[in-house]
Amino acid sequence: MRQITPKRFFTVITVILAALTFARPGRSQSPSQTAPGRDMNRERAIWQELEKIAPKSVETFKAATEAYDKDDYERAATLYRQVMEKAPSFDHIYRRLGSALALSGKTDEGMRYLERAYEMNPSPENMSTLAQFLDNPGEGKKSSNSDKARALDLAKKGLAAYQAQNRHDSPYNAVILAQIAFELDNVKEARAAVNALAANHPDLMQTHFYLAILAAADEDGEKAEQEIKKAQSLGLPAEAAQQFLDSGVHTRAQTWRYLYYALYLVGAWGAGLVALFALGKLFSNLTLRSIEGADPNGATGSKEISLRSCSTSSSAFSFVGTSSATMILSATFVIPIEV
Asked: Measured between alpha carbons, how far is 158 from 174 in angstroms, rounded to an integer?
């Protein structure tokens, strides 16, 4: 049987996480959709902040964000730079510009702006975005162990700061923490992030994907299988779901399912045997009473004949039932094993 070993399982999860882009800086997802979309209440608040500093740059900022959301990172970076020149104290612009540069391949320059945004204002968005790019700096680049450790610390602080503000609209901070924690095999921190997602975003694809990972880590194969199928119905690519199941989750779920069926069947037979033995004892007592009260020299009445017949049949059937139950108990526990 293929077992879910921690090393093998988390290796598979790391591969899936690396292949999927679940969250983008500054984006959230509506509960009923898997396509990314911005938290417009938060976005309007950012516009209002910028309007106080550089009112003529608000439209340029909007245009830059529109380009960013269309994956036109070079144009977004160009426009964000124009806003930065007019509003050099606006920390949001450094975060957006840094993200656009990093995603366009200019990772080192982008990281400098992300660090600058964090230094200016350690907000939940600035901490979580810096954590995301520290953990995954871009295509063809690998983060160091120290960068990953710092990313986890920043992601934890980002989620804590977000929750301290009593904000629950965006799943971004929790998703970033869950993703980094799972990559580092830190189930404790991952569980905290996933609990936040489950409480505030129960219909999000990422929520059920991460719940599936937790269930597998807890060796609950059946729940893991249910959660990954739910995630797939909400937008998780079929190949990612299958890769997760092939890591050993499906085999474990199937094994427990067969075991449940076997226990149910044995339990049903056990209950039937108890009933048969009780019925046999009842008829035996009635027959003995009938014999004790009957005249030994008299002819056997139809009542006595009927009781003796029922008692004999019940005993025989009980014996057959016991034998059959033993055979079924042996057969049902021969569980199919995957080669």
From this structure: 9
